[in-house]
Amino acid sequence: MKFVKPEGDEHIKIEVNSVTDTHSITGNLTSVKLIEGITQVEDQTKDGQFHSFSTKYQVEFVGDLKVNGTTIMSCTKNSTCLGLHDNGRSIGKYINTWVWGTAAFRTKSKKNKKQHKLGINISLSQEPQTASGDALWIDDKLYKLDALVITKQSPTEWHIQTYKGKGAKYPNNKVDVTFRGKFK
Known about the structure:
Strand content: over 45%
Shape: globular
Number of helices: 0
Largest sheet: 6 strands, antiparallel
């Protein structure tokens, strides 16, 4: 897989060309729009060994992805696909523990109702951070979030909710989501 961002070009290009004995995956995707990003910086200087920097952008793509010649994802100018681009670097410890998740999707379009673009990024670390990556995108606008409280309801269900206590910096930006995973 090639991930290309030519100099002077604001578009991201992704080329996929993977072949095994039994399967092939090919694809060409090009971004049509970069949307405002969230930057996360972690600085753990106790041992002088850890520093990381990461910027995440919500992106709209056009192009297609094929498995064994059959198109499994087709993104057009009228029906772009959404993704999140994580551009980061790190100089760190051999082992670092965190919980991180990200998603980008559209709401279902109901008759005569507007379809919305949504994105969420969550990032939790065992060590204190100078900044967090908790954020929500709604229709290309970025909303910074306070710490998220994540509760495992069952092996396939997780509940994510914004912290509501004293010291909340963004009390108007709230998330209350339940994720149900499907496992085979």
